[in-house]
């Protein structure tokens, strides 16, 4: 099969995957499903219009914003720079969660540990920051091939693949996030139940050992 044939198959599979992972959210998380599609649609239409204007004027994207070209270039870079987004999210985790976990272990040796606080709230902020970034990037990357079609510029089937991959990733991260929360809720129910599983019992014993002196104060 020619290269374009494999690309077409990949586009079809990716499209099916997008609606499959999105479908997992439709009943219990309709609001979050709507939010992801809204962010994706907003940036798709915005950059679709900008790409068309830029093509009509034979200019690059940021030049559409004259006399604020430098500002627009910086905004585009901010919206599409996945490396900086990952560094930003990693910094948040490192600053707010890392010290708590390390302190919990070190202080736990002496039985003076305190359970880390706001970990799930920070996790929710981090995860949704990443989901929103990926959804926006999906819209931006999807806008380019459609703008090429409208302006009669050469476009290949492969140009549609990145946008599909990113939007599937956004829904996938959302699904994983909710699955983790469901597991956390199940764990909480085990802690209050009569017969917690063996891993849960061991985790409780470790926590009790780490906090044995802190609980006496």
Structure, described:
It is a single chain. By secondary structure, the protein is mainly α. The chain is 75% helix and 0% strand. The protein contains 8 helices and no strands. It has helices at 3-23, 30-56, 69-80, 82-96, 98-108, 119-150, 161-192, 198-210. Helix 2 runs parallel beside helix 6 (119-150), helix 4 packs antiparallel against helix 6 and helix 6 (119-150) runs antiparallel to helix 7 (161-192). It is elongated and about 75 Å long.
Write the SSE topology.
Blueprint: H1 3-23, H2 30-56, H3 69-80, H4 82-96, H5 98-108, H6 119-150, H7 161-192, H8 198-210
Helix pairs in contact: 1-7, 2-6, 2-7, 4-6, 6-7
* Helix/strand order: HHHHHHHH
What is the average of the pLDDT values?
Answer: 84
Measure the end-to-end span.
72 Å
Please state the overall shape, judged from the principal axes of the Cα atoms: elongated
Strand content is: under 5%
The profile of the biggest β sheet is:
none
Structural class category: mainly alpha
- The number of helical elements comes to 8
Compact overview of the structure:
By secondary structure, this protein is mainly alpha-helical. It has eight helices and no strands.
Key attributes of the depicted protein:
mainly alpha, single chain
């Amino acid at each position: 099969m020619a290269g374009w044939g494999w690309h077409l198959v990949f586009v079809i599979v990716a499209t099916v995957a997008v609606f499959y992972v999105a479908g997992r959210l439709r009943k219990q998380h309709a609001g979050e499903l709507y939010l992801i599609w809204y962010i994706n649609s907003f940036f798709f239409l915005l950059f679709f219009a900008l790409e068309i204007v830029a093509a009509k004027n034979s200019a690059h994207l940021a030049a559409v914003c004259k006399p604020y070209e430098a500002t627009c270039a910086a905004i585009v870079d901010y919206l599409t720079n996945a490396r900086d987004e990952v560094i930003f999210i990693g910094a948040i985790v490192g600053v707010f969660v890392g010290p708590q976990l390390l302190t919990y272990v070190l202080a736990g040796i002496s039985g003076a540990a305190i359970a880390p606080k706001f970990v799930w709230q920070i996790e929710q902020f981090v995860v949704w920051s990443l989901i929103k970034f990926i959804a926006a990037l999906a819209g931006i990357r999807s806008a380019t091939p459609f703008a090429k079609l409208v302006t009669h510029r050469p476009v290949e089937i492969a140009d549609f693949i990145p946008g599909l991959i990113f939007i599937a990733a956004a829904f996938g991260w959302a699904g994983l996030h909710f699955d983790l929360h469901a597991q956390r809720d199940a764990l909480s129910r085990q802690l209050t139940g009569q017969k917690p599983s063996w891993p849960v019992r061991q985790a409780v014993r470790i926590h009790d050992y780490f906090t044995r002196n802190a609980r006496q104060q």
